[in-house]
């Protein structure tokens, strides 16, 4: 995967060069869209289906640094027969042999707590699960947030736009006539940017929910990779080499990029140190936990050593198409993934100017441990 060397500051080693990535351009600052066109529609496109989910960038409200909290991992106590989740009439089909599933005949909003526990466990095993024909987007936003809060304290993204009054919703929005694809490909050859979400936090997200509001007729799929399988694919000797290593994950560059693009920083950027290999609390699986968007360097390594090892891991993840799945969106789709044991990438492949509007609820989980 291509990457550019640029000068960075903040959490990087002093005077160092850091690998940065195409992902930095994404949903961290106001994108160019017409509020009027989104609300009323145009000759080319209908109005936004969920106008109360259109993003606003609230410059005034600032948030205090996040405090540690005790995460309860619901997947741990879940019934592994999944009987409260996969009831008669539901259907689970694997997306690939190594990662991902698609489920029909389950309404997420109807799950009781036992069903939600099993959802957390199933997603930890499958890594990403697409639920079709959901009524989730039709819930009042506060009810959707209450539903997500079961899985952990809801994260407020430091730079993203959110629906007015609901900062815990992270929005991925491109309005009618959006030209980001054309702009990106003036200077880049592809839009793939593997990452796990907000890994710079001390307690990054676990079971995470993304739901479709408006989707282009084609394009805008999301790629996922199984980071536990990517770990297991390495030789025992190499895995051993990774054990005990820690890396710095930084939000500083994202904040700088947001400000440079006219965006906001509503909580001061942080950096955290996480193990390169982490263990999932419900499954006991070990998984790689580095990503080119937020991981900066390996603690205690010299720059060339750190860059070389991280580049190998990023290439390994990006090239492992046999450990990846491509999730296709449709109206009513809700995608639940485990951010601890996956990485993902958006695909910016439609140049039709069609609206793409997706919301994320981001429960935080435990501080990663090996
Ligand atoms: Fe993401």
Polypeptide structure, described:
There is one protein chain. The chain is an alpha+beta fold and 370 residues long. It has one domain (4-361): 4-Layer Sandwich (Double-stranded beta-helix). The chain is built from 8 helices and 19 strands. The strands form 6 sheets. It has a 7-stranded mixed sheet. Strands 16-10-18 form a 3-stranded antiparallel sheet. A 3-stranded antiparallel sheet has the order 12-11-15. Mean pLDDT is 91; it is low at 1-25. Pfam families: TauD. This is TauD/TfdA-like domain-containing protein.
Beta-strand share of residues: 15-25%
What's the shape? globular
Class from helix and strand fractions: alpha+beta
Which hetero compounds are present in the coordinates?
fe (ii) ion
The spatial strand order of the largest sheet comes to 4-5-6-17-9-19-8
Identify the CATH architecture. Answer: 4-Layer Sandwich
Low-confidence stretches: 1-25
Order of helices and strands: EEHEEEHEHEEHEEHHEHEEEEHEEEE
What is the name of the CATH class? Alpha Beta
Bin the helical content: 10-25%
Q: How many distinct helices? A: 8
The count of strands amounts to 19
Major β-sheet profile: 7 strands, mixed
**What is the mean pLDDT?**
91
Radius of gyration: 20 Å
For the record, the count of structural domains works out to 1
CATH superfamily: Clavaminate synthase-like
End-to-end gap: 27 Å
Within the CATH hierarchy, at the fold level, what is the topology? Double-stranded beta-helix
């Amino acid at each position: 995967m291509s990457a550019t060397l640029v000068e960075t500051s903040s959490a990087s080693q002093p005077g160092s060069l850091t690998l940065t990535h195409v992902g930095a351009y994404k949903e961290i600052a106001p994108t160019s869209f017409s509020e009027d066109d989104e609300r009323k529609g145009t000759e080319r496109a209908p109005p936004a289906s969920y106008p109360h989910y259109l993003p606003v960038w609230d410059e005034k409200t600032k948030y205090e640094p996040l405090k540690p909290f005790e995460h309860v991992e619901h997947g741990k106590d879940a019934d592994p027969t999944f009987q409260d989740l996969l009831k008669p009439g539901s259907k689970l089909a694997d997306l690939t042999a190594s990662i991902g599933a698609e489920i029909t005949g389950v309404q997420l909003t109807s799950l009781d707590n036992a069903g939600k526990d099993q959802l957390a466990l199933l997603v930890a095993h499958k890594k990403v699960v697409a639920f079709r024909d959901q009524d989730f987007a039709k819930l009042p936003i506060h009810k959707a947030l209450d539903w997500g809060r079961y899985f952990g304290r809801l994260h407020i993204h430091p730079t993203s736009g959110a629906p007015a009054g609901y900062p815990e919703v992270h929005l991925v929005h491109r309005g009618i006539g959006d030209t980001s694809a054309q702009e990106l490909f003036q200077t880049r050859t592809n839009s793939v940017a593997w990452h796990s979400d907000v890994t710079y936090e001390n307690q990054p997200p676990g079971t995470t929910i993304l739901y479709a509001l408006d989707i282009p007729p084609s394009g805008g799929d999301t790629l996922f990779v199984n980071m536990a399988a990517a770990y297991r694919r390495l030789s025992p000797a190499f895995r051993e080499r990774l054990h005990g290593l820690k890396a710095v994950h930084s939000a500083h560059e994202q904040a700088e990029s947001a400000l440079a693009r006219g965006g906001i920083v509503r909580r001061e950027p942080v950096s955290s140190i996480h193990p390169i290999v982490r263990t999932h609390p419900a499954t006991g699986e070990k998984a790689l936990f580095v990503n080119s968007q937020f991981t900066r360097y390996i603690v205690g390594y010299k720059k060339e050593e750190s860059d070389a090892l991280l580049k190998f891991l990023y290439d390994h993840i990006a090239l492992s198409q046999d450990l990846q799945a491509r999730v296709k969106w449709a109206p009513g789709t809700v995608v639940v993934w485990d951010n601890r044991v996956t990485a993902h990438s958006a695909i910016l492949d439609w140049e039709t100017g069609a609206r793409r509007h997706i919301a994320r609820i981001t429960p935080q989980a435990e501080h990663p441990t090996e």
